[in-house]
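Bump. Still looking for Nucleotidyltransferase domain-containing protein structure tokens.
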Amino acid sequence: MNFLTFAEQFIEAQFPRAAIAVLAGSTARRERTATSDIDLLLIGEDLFEQERSRTAMATTRAYAGEVFEIFAYTPAGFAEWAERDLARHRPVIVRMLIDGIPIRDDGSLATLRARWRTSLDLGPRIDDAELAFRRYVITDLLDDLQDSTSPIEIRVLEGLLYERIAELILLSGGEWIGSGKWLPRRLAAFDATRAAALSAPLLAGDHAGFAERVAAELDACGGRMQDGMVR
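Sorry for the wait, here they are.
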């Protein structure tokens, strides 16, 4: 299937006023699986003709046997939500804008990409207070893991700890984080050796080994945080 043509057909049918349209996700990267949907970023001043007060919409639409995940914005709405993503250190729609394949371009896409690439290249803005709080959360979770004897509690805590320590490693290194499957991918891209060392005991069911690895990474990022923590 020619997904660019197919996506344009969908846009014309359901979001005809889109001035900019970008195909993103696994379809754009040619990494589709059997359950992949089609990610589209849409931007247009008159995109929401029937709801003039709306500036943003995230919606799932079925069309001709495929599922589309739509991220639609007015220019002002995109700027607002892009800044929110950057503040959360997960620049999802900014990456869609920059890395995706253009389907529609009213002539402003290059300027828009250049503006947001500058923000992306600067990396996450994170202060000492947030880093300290993240260390505090990991310290607490790590203590819980080392004390727990419940198999289900151990597995839940390990999942939470992997997420929190991976985020801390990335942010301490000036890297953007991700959610879900993107978190281990971001970590591996940043430092494959550290990523493998963290995941190996987790995959092997070595609970003590995983706790030791998390503790080592916590030390590398500033160490345990409890005394004097204000939240």
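The CA atoms of residues 146 and 222 lie 20 Å apart.

Edit: fixed formatting.
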